[in-house]
Amino acid sequence: MRYSSLVDRLYNDGAAGWDVHMAAWRAQARGEDVIVLSVGDPDFDTPAPIVDAAVDALRSGDTHYGPIIGRPELRAAVAADMSARTGLSLGGENVMICAGTQNGLLAAAMCLLDAGDEVIGLDPMYLTYQSTLGVTGADIVRVAQPAAGGFRPDAAAIEAAVTARTRAVVITTPNNPTGVAMTRAELEAIAEIALRHDLWVVSDEVYSDVIFEGEHVSIASLDGMAERTVTVGSLSKSHAMTGWRCGWAVAPVSLVRHFDALQVNVNYGIPGFVQAAALAALTEYREAFRPMVDAYKRRRDLAAQVLADAPDLPVLVPDAGMYLLADVRAHTDSVRRFVRELFDATGVSVIDASAFGDSCRGWIRLSFTLSDDALVDGCTRLVDFLKSR
Questions:
Q1: Among residues 1, 34, 150, 372, which is most buried (max CB within 10 A)?
Q2: CB of 277 within 8 A of CB of 246?
Q3: Is this prediction's pTM over 0.85?
Q4: d(C-alpha 324, C-alpha 365), whole Å
Q5: How far apart are the first and last CA of the chain?
């Protein structure tokens, strides 16, 4: 049987980066002694009052179709939240409610890109971006953010990558996997490029609440950028709601209308009880994320402290997020093999960070989405493994 060429564009080399994680997940399900440092799923439960809001909605019969692009009250709450962050004057008409950030990115790609267009992506990038953007037939031009420069954006390299076919730049701040949060000056440099070349910017800001020092800056807040920026976000990381699949895209009204037409043919809306939970999280329980972020910061520092005892293991301490990168080039010429050997020997799963792009070749990504004790145990096993080699 023949399949659409689209299915081939859904696969890329990054998918293999999950092999050890999936093996760890299966071993954990069998009750084996494993420590999973390979996934960014918060170990916290969704705060109980947010769950209650969904249960109350279900019990009141909120199980029917609703507005495809999202309920007005939730769209208004997202708009108010982002207006407060950015100083922009946004309304619900600027917001699409969608099935998580991933769905928002796909909607942006489908409504902005055509086959033959180019979209600039900053490497490293989340490993599904290649497929999410490429499904449109657009070509992804990866611009390195090298380890030698702290994985920070290089405006000159971005400018050099622009061609007559360039349609958009996709950024992630704070970044997964590096934890780098872009500064205002770095974002201003990217904004200048977008304005000069009449480009869209798609900004993934799902980790914007999980920031440890300083304040998050949205590129949409910069002069002239609101009308050419799609900002995608969700409550998945901030409020431990990964499984709820509720996110948003904030964009110019004209683009949101196209999102609406697309979603008629994709999701046909997000369940009302899920939106009830999201509304509670964004309004009554907006600050519920703070204790979790405090815990992530403490775990970041714990992990860095333990790993400092390892021989020849440079560590990038993140500005934000749930991950830490470590450079294992002194210990192996194949990180994929190293990750497998580490798991087989110690039961600790980490990710070969090259799955996120060549800029991370030679590095591993560890998550700190588990208890302090388990994190210290996992990092200690990694240190002992390195000392034994």
A1: 34
A2: yes
A3: yes
A4: 6
A5: 49
Q: How far apart are CA 273 and CA 330, in angstroms?
A: 51
Q: How far apart are CA 160 and CA 230, in angstroms?
A: 23
Asked if residues 140 and 314 have their Cβ atoms less than 8 Å apart, the reply is: no
Ranges of beta strands (E only) in the chain are 35-36, 95-98, 118-123, 139-144, 166-172, 200-204, 229-234, 247-250, 315-316, 323-327, 348-349, 351-352, 363-367
Q: At what angle do helices 372-388 and 335-346 cross, to 10 degrees?
A: 110
- Which domains are assigned to the chain? 5-46+288-388 (3.90.1150.10), 49-286 (3.40.640.10)
Q: Is residue 115 packed enough to be buried (19+ CB in 10 Å), middle (13-18) or exposed (0-12)?
A: exposed
Q: How many CB atoms lie within 10 A of CB 28?
A: 15
Question: How far is the C-alpha of 126 from the C-alpha of 234, rounded, in Å?
Answer: 16
* Nearest by Cα to 214 from 241, 179, 242: 179
pLDDT in tens, the chain (389 residues): 888 888 877 776 666 667 899 999 999 999 999 999 998 899 999 999 999 999 999 999 999 999 999 999 999 999 999 999 999 999 999 999 999 999 999 999 999 999 999 999 999 999 889 999 999 999 999 999 999 999 999 999 999 999 999 999 999 999 999 999 999 999 999 999 999 999 999 999 999 999 998 889 999 999 999 999 999 999 999 999 999 999 999 999 999 999 999 999 999 999 999 999 999 999 999 999 999 999 999 999 999 999 999 999 999 999 999 999 999 999 999 999 999 999 999 999 999 999 999 999 999 999 999 999 999 999 999 999 999 98
Give the side-chain half-sphere CA count within 13 A for 270: 27
